[in-house]
Each structure stands twice: as structure tokens, then as C-alpha cells.
Amino acid sequence: MTTFTHEALLHLHGPDAAKFLQGQTTADFLNAAPNSLLRGAFCNPKGRVLADFLAAVISHEDIWLRSRRAVAEHLVAHLERYLMFSKATLTLTDWAVSADSIDAENALCLDPDQGLMVIPRGAALTEYWSAPDHTAPGRLTERAFQAQEIAIEEARIEKSTIGAYLPQDLNYDLNDAVSFKKGCYTGQEIIARLHFRGTPKRRLYSAECSVDAELEPGAIITAADTEKTLGSVVNCAATENGKVMLIEAVETVFEQNPRVSDAQIRAKP
């Protein structure tokens, strides 16, 4: 079985766990039901995303967060100053993340006492979060898992893109990762102003690419004919047929530039 070296699980535990996340993230933790999943993001005061997460809400006092490992390490250091004023403890755990290409709908299991949590994602994807003394049941390689995430257009923050994007750049406002009904949180003013009073200038696109060169997250995409900057690579994964990517760019840019560094746009928000 395969565990993912680039994924990590954070555990927030204590009477103020949900209250703390309510003031720090785009997700509505205070209205989350026990044994439920939430997607969301931590942002800086300028509304830029510091970390994305998938949260397992066991209860309002017991919450687990899955993020990229390098991003999670940065997040723990960032949140230390705020946790000093909360009755909650944040731990970077030694639990493992794995996945399988099966649809385990209605098989959600969020019981950390069993040493294994089952996270159905739909679209033939199931995650497993397992304790160190349990065998991780997932059989997907990490590369295949990342390709699956790109297929369902789930943008992930990487170490090189911490603080680079607004939630709207990554379509977080379109896939329930941002609550516009909850109270204040870090970055909320800018994110809400763009939502209610403006129009996002940039959006997320899925693409495929045949070039052999490595396309790192944050890499700039330019027009093949003018070298004009069009956007950037958010996530990229190799497949048998080339590379699949998520790209953030101005909404109309690919209609004006149908050929962009050998990337072929396949879907739009």
C-alpha cells in the first residue's frame, strides 16, 4: 500500500477548536455538523491564501485538517501566535494519507479512535487517514492522486504558492470552500468585497500539456507568440499521456490566445 509523503494531517483539539477556526478560515466551522467534512482556506490579512484544507469535523472540540506537508508545517508556525489566546492545541500528526480510485459513497467514517478514517470524495476517489500502527489501505500512487485532484478541479496550495492567490483565483468561492454568511475572519473584508462588489479578474482552468519540461507550481504561463504573461500553474501532475494542470488566468485569455505554451484548455469554470 502507498502513503503520500507530500500530505499531512493536523489535529486541533480543545474547547475553542471550532471557534478558533471560525476566525481564521473561510469555512463556517461553528455551523458544521459533527462527523462532517469541510473544505476551506487560511488567508492572510490581504485575502491571499496561505493554505487550503479538507477538514474532518469530529466535533467542535476535535477537528482534523489535511493539507500539503510543507504548507502544513508553515501553517503551524504561522498560527502559534494566535493559538496562545485559545483553549486549543494544534499538532502536526504522524498519521498517513493514502487513497484509492473507488467511489465509497455513503461510507464516510470519521472515528479517529479506530485508527482509520475513510473519506469518500466522489468521482471514484476515496481517501484514507490512518494512524501509524494501522496499515494504509490506499493503492493509488501520489502522482495518480494528484492527477485525480486536478481532474475534479480541486486546487491545492503548494509551498511555492503560499500567499500567491485569492480564493476566487482558485474557484474556492464556486465550490463551497468559502462561506459568505459567516462572521469575520482573517482576510474576509477583501474576499467579501470582491464577491459582493466586484468581478473576479482571474479564474481556475484545467489544462493538459505535452511538453517534457517540469512545470512547477507558480510557474508563469506566457503566450507562445507574444510572450505576454497570461497566468500561472497552480498544480501539475504527470500522466501516461503527458501532463495535466490547473491554471489560474484572466477569464478571456485563452479565447484570445488559443495556443499557450503547448497547453490545451479543456474546461472552464
Biggest β-sheet: strands ordered side by side in the sheet: 2-3-4-1-5
Helix content: 10-25%
Number of helices: 5
Structural class determined from secondary elements: alpha+beta
Q: What is the β-strand count?
A: 13
Task: Write the H/E string, N to C.
Answer: EHEEEHEEEEHHEEEEHE
Average pLDDT rating: 89
Task: Give the terminus-to-terminus CA distance.
Answer: 35 Å
Q: What portion of the residues fall into strands of 2 or more residues?
A: 25-35%
Uncertain regions: pLDDT < 50 for 5+ in a row? 258-269
Gyration radius, to the nearest Å? 19 Å
Task: Please summarize the sheet with the most strands.
Answer: 5 strands, antiparallel
- Based on Cα principal axes, name the global outline: globular
Topology (SSEs and partners):
Layout lengths: L6 E7 L3 H6 L13 E8 L5 E11 L2 E7 H15 L5 E4 L3 E5 L15 E7 L2 E6 L11 H10 L36 H10 L4 E8 L10 E3 L6 E11 L2 E9 L2 H4 L6 E5 L2
Antiparallel strand pairs: 1-4, 1-5, 2-3, 3-4, 6-8, 7-8, 9-12, 9-13, 10-11, 11-12
